[in-house]
Fold:
Amino acid sequence: MATLDPTQGMFSVQPGSVSKETYTIAGILTNVYGLRELHPSAQAVSCLWLLHPRLQTQECMVPLADKILNDWNTREDSKSQGLVAATFDQRNHGSRMIDKLANEAWKSGNERHAQDMFSIYRRFDLQFKAPLSMAEGEQMERGHAAWQCLFHDPRVLAAVIVIGCPDYFTLMFDRARLSRRETWSESTPPGAGFLGSKDFPSALVQAVQQHDPAGMLLGKPADRINTNYDRHQSSTEYGKVLQTTSKTLTGKWVLNLAGGADKLVPYACAEPFLNWLRAAVAPGGVFENNSVHIEDKVYEGVGHQMNNDMAEEAMSFIAMVLQHSITHSSEKTSKM
Structure:
């Protein structure tokens, strides 16, 4: 069964209150909101990329674009720092639909769920590099794909992660258990045979270790089963992690928003990595000099949805990042 739109019904504002321009960029149909509302005196423009959820299209992000842009454009700072929003359909979604089943989960009949979902949002990160260069600064909004862009594109300095998990293996491991996959249940102990199985083949294990945030920073998925990621790293691992984060995380701002009652993307799957990452960027941590700002908020009783409280938090966070960029304009580079 298709997943309900996590953004449905979260706003009272009607879409269409800000201007919209449509462009074809690198063969991708891209909608840009708020160009006409830019103040003539704006000296810089940042672009907020709104990434839609699985099984949805870019259209579901329009109310959020309206809400955030209308809020920013009422602020005095908008006269010097402009903001636009952009959306486009992810691979195999909306105007780019090829095979509906490939977007579904195991319970809905897609036997290649783990491979399909990772390849769609991982390839999204690669295709994202094509339309990204249209504005001076970039921010991200949404889930799994935003984690990928945050860790792989130096031009993305801020991200609001809504219903996203930075640890793909743990997420799929839990989903295989809940879906009662044979590759999980028919091993002793349960789950021991999941890695390298038809549901999570060796090639996918390697791709996750290379590109997924938890895989990049913490090593092989097998090292992370039933742990809190508090093991001591070797000098080789430490050097690799430090080199990776200096390129991907330095100076970035991250807001993670999750529903405490989300059963499809449980916060418990992301929590160990987020705890590890927060400790790593805190004073005394391995990344304490990388100037990484991380906020992590869980909304108890909220399921697989982005409610209005989350939207308000995201709006405030984006405004804070923009105001910070104005304050530190003398140090500003072309990434945002």
Notes: DSSP finds ten helices and eight strands in the chain. The first strand starts at residue 20 and ends at 25. Residues 130-136, 332-336 have pLDDT under 50 and may be disordered.
